[in-house]
């Protein structure tokens, strides 16, 4: 797989090792090491099981033995599509012990994405639940397996049903334990993550043992993680955000506990916070209003919750201030990052206004950040430009994507993120939007994210997305898709007046408003503007 992966230049790699960012540990020995230190502590909790470090390590040994008996070994890629339950982590660490490479897919992926990822990765196996959220993954797996010759094994958590050729995960868990663990190099690929773009099929992001371990460790240090940390995974654990920012792996790294929530419903999650004495959790901006509403009526004891992370998309300043005021005793931590690498966090001791209005600063002193104009020239702090970055945990190239890499990376290895930001003198970044997320209205450039953030504060709006539509006179006009909080959607005139009151230029007001019952989301929880663009092309509904 080495030829499919762009590695760090030798001198950069040597520098990262010399400065202690990269160590000799790999995920193959991660659990055994933690078990030696924290064996009797609770490692993982879900709705059905509670496993200590020793139990988790022993179970992964058996599953690894069962996988090896199927012929799965070093370098093999395995698609993992499981909801938040202990089997995800059991399988993940079992694959690490074999030197195999888990490919993180999302619960909402279907035949188009799974077939694409199977072919791209040349996966030999596909791990699924039997039925999840009323969807039968076994039928999906059978269809994909028929299309992809490399896909030899389907592993099912639950009942394989009529598919006798599938392997029950329970059978793997009762196999003879793995006798000899693989010992990969820290620079070997440990997992393949998915790009989080809102258009097109996902690309694969290779993360090495060294860089991904450092990612979680550095994030955990910023969050003040200790052995007393209890992390609530409210979003899918397959997300990089949930897995390692610092997420599940960051908690396990220091002997803490990972609590896997089966869904992000705030009432259910608040009960888990009280029951498990959760100290940190992470949600996205779409969930923030729901958690705020539940906070007003809940009787659950949330006093243990020290940090609430909100990230994966831009959080509006107004919602951030409300979270700060309505969750006393809990610090809001804004998170801005990408599965490709760079992770920015606001700090626990930042001033409230910095927490409310910025998306944090890089977690590592080795993170290199540039903010540039269209000609790759650096712009002064305070001016808007595209974010470019490189560092000890930011990829140097996507997996098997040489043409895309040529466009996406500079000659000296900086990753063009596509995000438009302002950098403050403190190093904190303010996310303005995406480079391609602008509307050119008669020559005036409208940053969609900026307008969305303002309108998100309107009391009549639950969720909003701004898109461009072709216009004969203006070139493009702006269309606001609105999920209202009540029965009545605010009119264009009302939204224009609201924006004027907030000091926003008049040309940024939406030219048209359309009502939605729910906002379409991508598998990683971002507004799916590809779906909205399709609705836009179809025209207004009667």
Automatic annotation (TrEMBL):
| Residue stretches making up the AMP-binding enzyme C-terminal domain | 450-526
Which Pfam family is one of this chain's hits?
Answer: AMP-binding_C
* Region of interest (Disordered), residue spans: 359-386
Biased composition annotated in UniProt, kind: Acidic residues: 373-384
Q: Which organism is it from?
A: Lentzea flaviverrucosa
InterPro entries in the record: AMP-bd_C, AMP-bd_C_sf, AMP-binding_CS, AMP-dep_synth/lig_dom, ATP-dep_AMP-bd_enzyme
Q: What is this protein called?
A: 2,3-dihydroxybenzoate-AMP ligase
**Listed PROSITE patterns:** AMP_BINDING (PS00455)
């Amino acid at each position: 797989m080495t030829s499919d992966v762009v590695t760090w230049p030798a001198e950069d790699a040597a520098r990262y090792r010399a400065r202690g960012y990269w160590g000799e540990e790999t995920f193959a020995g991660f659990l055994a090491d933690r078990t030696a230190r924290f064996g009797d502590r609770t490692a993982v909790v879900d709705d059905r099981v509670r496993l200590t470090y020793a139990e988790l390590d022993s179970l992964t040994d058996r599953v690894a033995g069962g996988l090896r008996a199927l012929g799965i070994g070093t370098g093999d890629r395995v698609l993992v599509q499981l909801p938040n339950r202990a089997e995800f982590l059991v399988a993940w660490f079992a694959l690490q012990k074999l030197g195999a490479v888990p490919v993180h897919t999302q619960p909402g992926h279907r035949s188009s994405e799974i077939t694409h990822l199977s072919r791209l990765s040349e996966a030999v196996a596909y791990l699924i639940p039997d039925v999840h959220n009323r969807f039968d993954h076994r039928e999906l797996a059978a269809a994909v397996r028929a299309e992809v010759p490399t896909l030899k094994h389907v592993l099912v958590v639950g009942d394989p049903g009529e598919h006798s050729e599938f392997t029950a995960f329970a059978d793997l868990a009762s196999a003879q334990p793995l006798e000899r663990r693989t010992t990969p190099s820290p620079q070997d690929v440990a997992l393949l993550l998915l790009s989080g773009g809102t258009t097109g099929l996902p690309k694969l992001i290779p993360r090495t043992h060294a860089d991904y371990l450092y990612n979680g460790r550095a994030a955990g240090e910023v969050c003040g993680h200790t052995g007393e940390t209890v992390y609530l995974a409210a979003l899918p654990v397959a997300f990089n955000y949930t897995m390692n920012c610092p997420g599940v792996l960051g908690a396990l790294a220091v002997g803490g506990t990972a609590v896997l929530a089966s869904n992000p419903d705030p009432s259910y999650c608040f009960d888990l916070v009280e029951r498990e004495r959760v100290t940190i959790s992470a949600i996205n901006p779409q969930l923030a209003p729901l958690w705020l509403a539940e906070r007003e009526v809940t009787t659950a004891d949330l006093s243990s919750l020290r940090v609430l992370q909100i990230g994966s998309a831009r959080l509006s300043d107004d919602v951030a201030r409300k979270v700060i005021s309505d969750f006393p005793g809990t610090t809001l931590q804004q998170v801005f990052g990408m599965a490709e690498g760079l992770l920015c966090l606001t700090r626990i001791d930042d001033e409230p206004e910095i927490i409310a209005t910025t998306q944090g600063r890089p977690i590592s002193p080795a993170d290199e950040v540039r903010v540039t104009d269209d000609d790759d020239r650096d712009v002064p702090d305070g001016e808007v430009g595209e974010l470019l970055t490189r560092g000890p945990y930011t990829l140097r190239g996507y997996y098997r994507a040489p043409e895309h890499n040529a466009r996406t990376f500079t000659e000296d290895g900086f990753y063009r993120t596509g995000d438009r930001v302002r950098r403050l003198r403190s190093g904190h970044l303010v996310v303005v939007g995406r480079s391609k997320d602008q509307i050119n209205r008669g020559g005036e450039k409208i940053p969609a994210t900026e307008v969305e953030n303002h309108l998100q504060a309107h009391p009549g709006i639950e969720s909003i997305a701004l898109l461009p539509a072709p216009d004969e006179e203006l070139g493009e006009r702006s269309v606001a898709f609105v999920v209202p909080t009540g029965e009545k959607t605010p009119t264009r005139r009302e939204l224009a007046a609201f924006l004027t009151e907030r000091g926003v230029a008049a040309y940024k007001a939406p030219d048209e408003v359309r009502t939605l019952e729910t906002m379409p989301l991508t598998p990683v929880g971002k507004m799916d503007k590809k779906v909205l663009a399709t609705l836009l092309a179809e025209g207004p509904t009667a």
